[in-house]
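Researcher: I'd like a structural prediction for the single chain below. Treat it as a standalone chain; there are no partners to consider.
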Amino acid sequence: MITAEQREQVRGWFTGRLPDDLFEELAEVTVDREEITVIGRIPAPRRVADASPAEREAAVEGRVQEFRERTRDDRIAVARDAEHRFGRKVSWGVECDGRRALFTHVAAPVMTRLRQPERQVLDTLIAGGVARSRSEALAWCVRLVQRHTDDWLTELRESLQHVQRVRAQGPDGEPPEDPAAAEG
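Model: Treating it as a single chain, here is the predicted structure.
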């Protein structure tokens, strides 16, 4: 698991490394073992007040596509540096007028052993047309859990960070500084 400090270092690196005019704002940097996802906010297209929802949606889609093509070389250069520095693939996306679009992202295989009751859940999702395969059904389940347990997952991540701090203070970690020894 990545610590909050490591996550802040990655975000800070991207903040300093990205060209100033790439995004209006760096909205989000997400890090896991395989991937760093960088999401930036871009300006919404100018549109007339009486545009239909379909026209507005098409304008946002066009703006996202234009941004993707125009910034490809800059994003590739940053991604190469980041992949070398952090040992993870870099994925990109944008937020535009309230819509989020991911350009590329890692679909990492997950090895797992499921017993029959768990497989039956996945097969039910397939039979119901929610998913086309067991891997897609499993991804759907993960997104559902993520949506409904965000507070719990946040608390768990914070607890894991505390465990990492305590573990670092063990015999193989850095000893805490002794104030009495510093005075002598």
